[in-house]
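=== Structure Prediction Worksheet ===
Name of assembly: unnamed complex
Input type: mixed (protein and possibly other molecules)
Chain count: two
Listed entries:
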Amino acid sequence: MRRVVVTGLGAVTPLGVGVDHVWNRLLDGASGIKLIDSFDVSDLPAKIAGLVPAGTYADGGYDPEEWVDKKDLKKMDVFIAYAMAAAKQAVEDAGWQPEDQDERDRTGVMIGSGIGGLGGISEGSKLLAERGPRRLSPFFIPANLINLASGFVSIQYGFRGPNHAVVTACATGTHAIGDAARLIMFGDADVMVAGGTESAVCRIGLAGFAAARALSTNFNETPEKASRPWDKDRDGFVMGEGAGIVVLEELEHAKARGAKIYAEVLGYGLSGDAYHMTAPSEDGSGGFRAMENAFRNAGIAKEKIDYVNAHGTSTPLGDEIELGAVKRLFGDHAYKLAMSSTKSAIGHLLGAAGAVEAIFTVKAIQTGDLPPTLNLDNPSEGCDINLVAHEAQQRKVDYALSNSFGFGGTNASVIFGPTP
Amino acid sequence: MSDVAERVKSIVVEHLGVDADKVTDNASFIDDLGADSLDTVELVMAFEEEFGCEIPDDAAEKIATVKDAIDFIEANQ
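=== Predicted Assembly ===
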């Protein structure tokens, strides 16, 4: 099978825009979770979210007009604009500028989203009810379709290879990267722009997740304390927004053009819970089997893993179930590896989560820095492995794994290894 | 330039993201100003909004240039 490496990274997150900027703030223990002030939250039980900060790219902020032509912005929901910004960073970071049609035909795009244009659909629905069908924009449907993130990116760069989009709720980003890597392994493409994007922090999104009793509601006064994976006081996840995009490339293709290589995509595993719409199966078998399947094609011993970027959403049920699965899978080695949840700093980016967390996992391999789990003041019983509480740690990281689990009982794990 | 012409041209500039000096009377939205069929639908909606008039689909199909838009609006205000 052909080997696949990561050659470009791009991120739009609640800690800012630009991978290095975000990574440094993450290691500093900064939080991107704030009180929402862009729409009315007075009647909502959860009033906080991980919000992408406004500002210029030079200052680590987000200004859509720096990334997308102003006239095109009205043709796309925010989630697509985030993907365009992250994709531009990743493509430029990779230095991938195909010179002929054949190279463009061998470059594909696989960007997913959990929910797509939820805010845009909600606004369109209001407009239809209040002012009638003649006022609905001709861009309403394409602006909100999930696969239009891939569509816009492919049009922007002329990438005419596989044009695909993943929709697996909160596992989307990890599935997109894993599936895109497989397309390269199978020879369907030489280069794939892959990842996830999300902008569901709007009234209907917040109200919907709150109705499902999934969100933290006890920390509206201290937003930066709300996302606290494995801590006794955790009470639900905190919504986040943004995008993570990576450039994946066939190893020899990357070497031939002298590309900088961050890491290798070694293993990818998937599984289903077949259990419940929103709750993880209590025995953790879904996450366990996704990780186990990732090892099956990674071809490395479990003891090689130095770092796990956990799904760790800060929900009462999920965190301990995932940790239990990690302990069962790794045995004694669970006490030697380190595991953290970066959702403690940025919240849960839903369909973008796995992609942004894959970037953090790759950065851990590149730099040897382990991002912290914030707010882990009093670990729940049995949460006794190194969860990188409060402060970043340093250690050599050769191999690392990232987990993502989604509503519908969908699970994905990806294993990255050192530059070949 | 009439008031209607000025307002039509400023809508075209804003919606199509083109330079004002390109928006001449005879400029075609699709051939000269880079619009596609969805852009022209949206442009017609913006004219309706700005001038408080309704432009039926069969009339909208005949609005291909800046002047077509100005003439229709002036005749139907």
